[in-house]
Amino acid sequence: MNETAKPGILDRLRARYEWFDHVMRADERFNDRKGNFYAAGLTYYTIFALFPLLMVGFAVTGFVLSRRPDLLAQIENQIKTSVSGHFGQQLLDLMNSAIEARASVGIIGLALAVWAGLSWMANLREALSQMWQQRRKPVGFVRTKLSDLVAMASALVAIAVTLGLTAVGDATLMTKMLGWLGIHNLPLLDAALRGVSVLMSLLVSWVLFTWMIARLPRESISFVSAMRAGLIAAVGFEVFKQIASIYLRSVLKSPAAATFGPVLGLMVFAYITARLVLFATAWAATSPENLQALPVEPPGPAVITPRVQLDEGLRPRQTLAALAVGALGALGLSRLVQRRRN
Length: 342
Prior knowledge:
Blueprint: H1 9-16, H2 18-32, H3 35-67, H4 69-82, H5 86-100, H6 102-131, H7 141-168, H8 171-180, H9 187-215, H10 223-251, H11 255-285, H12 316-341
Helix pairs in contact: 1-2, 2-11, 3-6, 3-11, 4-5, 6-7, 7-9, 8-9, 9-10, 10-11
């Protein structure tokens, strides 16, 4: 007797808890749409874009120092005081050569930064579109790149505003502002300021991630569908940020870890952040209000291939065999007729 197979523990949990079923649906969407692959690509372009940005930063610093000889003289004196001998002179020569080549370094760095930024934005938008299972027809290379450029500029503005609001809500900055007002040594106030800082950072991250999930896909989504997913990403990002700060404080204690730790930490930070955003997008896309029936693709065109076979008649062997069979048949028929007559 065949017994009906009992559902597994995951199936029972999914049937009992709606939120767990939603998590499993989001995880399935994330894996089916190669979320890990896109997160790794976003991490690569994030790290790669840092080098041209550093070149632009060096060029800007070179322009500032070329217009401030007093500041340049102070830096040179500081280098001579801190680093003596041949190595100190090499640092001075390197700084002077960087200032002289500031224009070319800035132009090359800016061009590479734009290229890396466009690649990063294209990968991000494609990843978000895949999480939403969007099927958008290509609109041409030039229009796609212009759309990515506008999206990248919007993202930079949104990130700049986010960083500014986060800096305003920073507990250290608030403590300094209170110190300027003559308010010091209030433990309860310090704890309240830290709480306000975390809440402000969470709120700003929520707005940023909601905007990314709703507006950066190739086809825009309503903010209502992205708000809960943005909140999930913001909470996860804030928790991970606190863990990352503890990691960095512990890493910077030894010289070797201080050399390689920040780079590894930055790679892990970029990867986890990308996974958070993509998983939150998959969560939004698998919400009940967004689970729509996918359009059924029409079948491909029928290809009729007629098979033409030429009949060249009987071959000599076939003709002889047919004659032999006919003769045997005639001989047998004649004997049968004679028997009936007799």
